[in-house]
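Quick one, tokens below. Sequence please?
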């Protein structure tokens, strides 16, 4: 039984080191019972790419002040009383950051894909979708009623389970040839790649005007929650009137929105420091160091250089529990992934690197890997 390897309770912020609650089971791991004991573990599982999930000298005070003014929730949808000045400011900052005329934000990243796609295309339309696209895209496409044709690989900015960058320039060229629209999911790439963190377009030198719809989330690089769609002003106005996630769902929490605004300002240097550029550079250095060291040790590591997502292939699902438990025993917390999130015989451990990791943190993790 592998239940102890999943849904491990955490009782601290998802910083580089966090507290994992110890659980016990007396029935072959069928029922896990929490204890009062915790283990301080190196966090290689959270999407805290730029380190904003922990207390930040610029972001955190502003988020706390926003909580005092706006409270934790708007208790309303965007079309009723759920649009605050914080929400409109966030949308302006997102549009500016990604290089599109306008943007709309949602309270959940998954819903950003699954609720937006059905209002962009319907019966009679054609969706050409990557075989490894995230489940939110798959469900959104199915819900649209459009015809779906799947191709083998490469359309998310960075693949959540593969750590690979998409071949965007080739895809843009094909879409121009056949007059198709380009929709890019940057959930794992926005903030994490590119010289100033603006994602795959910046990294690959592609004009954002060539990408019709840019989707991303705030849960990875910005230490918050929610997602966004950026595109033309006409597109965003259309979504405001038609997308159920905007019309019927509670708006993103104002303090969460303020956290994103503050993080974007840090990345753009508008906080008066160079911390944003330093974070992005350090993330790239950490990612490339860790990837190259794993490869030297003989691990089969998927993904591209500069990507902070590193799947270590274990293949056989029976290896997952031993790998996960051995790491935890040495105070290193990792995520293990298997079917249905991956194909049955492609089980893996997925490592997420952070700019907040020190060289010593990464060396410790490598030493544990060598023993696993």
């Amino acid at each position: 039984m592998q239940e102890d390897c999943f849904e491990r309770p955490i009782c601290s912020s998802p910083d580089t080191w966090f507290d994992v609650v110890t659980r016990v089971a007396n029935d072959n791991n069928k029922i896990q019972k929490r204890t009062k004991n915790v283990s301080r573990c190196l966090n290689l599982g959270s999407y805290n790419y730029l380190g904003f999930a922990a207390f930040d000298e610029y972001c955190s005070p502003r988020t706390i002040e926003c909580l005092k003014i706006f409270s934790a929730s708007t208790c309303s949808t965007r079309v009723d009383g759920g649009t605050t000045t914080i929400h409109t400011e966030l949308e302006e900052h997102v549009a500016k950051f990604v290089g599109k005329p306008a943007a709309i934000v949602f309270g959940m990243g998954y819903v950003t894909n699954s609720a937006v796609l059905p209002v962009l295309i319907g019966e009679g339309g054609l969706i050409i979708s990557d075989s490894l696209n995230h489940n939110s895209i798959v469900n959104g496409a199915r819900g649209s009623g459009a015809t779906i044709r799947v191709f083998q690989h490469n359309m998310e900015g960075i693949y959540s389970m593969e750590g690979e960058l998409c071949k965007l320039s080739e895809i843009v060229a094909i879409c121009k040839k056949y007059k198709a629209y380009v929709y890019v999911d940057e959930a794992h790439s926005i903030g994490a790649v590119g010289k100033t963190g603006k994602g795959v377009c910046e990294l690959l030198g592609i004009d954002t005007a060539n990408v019709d719809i840019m989707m991303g989330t705030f849960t990875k690089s910005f230490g918050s929650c929610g997602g966004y769609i950026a595109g033309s002003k006409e597109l965003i106005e259309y979504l405001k009137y038609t997308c159920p996630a905007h019309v019927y769902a509670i708006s993103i929490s104002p303090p969460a929105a303020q956290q994103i605004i503050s993080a974007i300002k840090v990345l753009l240097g508008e906080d008066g420091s160079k911390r944003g550029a330093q974070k992005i550079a350090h993330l790239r250095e950490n990612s490339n160091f860790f990837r190259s060291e794993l490869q030297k040790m003989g691990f089969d590591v998927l993904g591209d250089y500069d990507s902070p997502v590193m799947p270590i292939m274990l293949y056989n699902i029976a290896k997952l529990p031993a790998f996960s438990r051995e790491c935890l025993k040495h105070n290193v917390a990792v995520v293990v992934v298997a079917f249905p999130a991956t194909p049955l015989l492609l089980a893996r451990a997925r490592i997420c690197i952070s700019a907040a990791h020190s060289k010593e943190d990464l060396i410790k993790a490598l030493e544990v890997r060598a023993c696993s």
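The chain has two domains: 3-43+276-371, 59-267. The mean pLDDT is 93.
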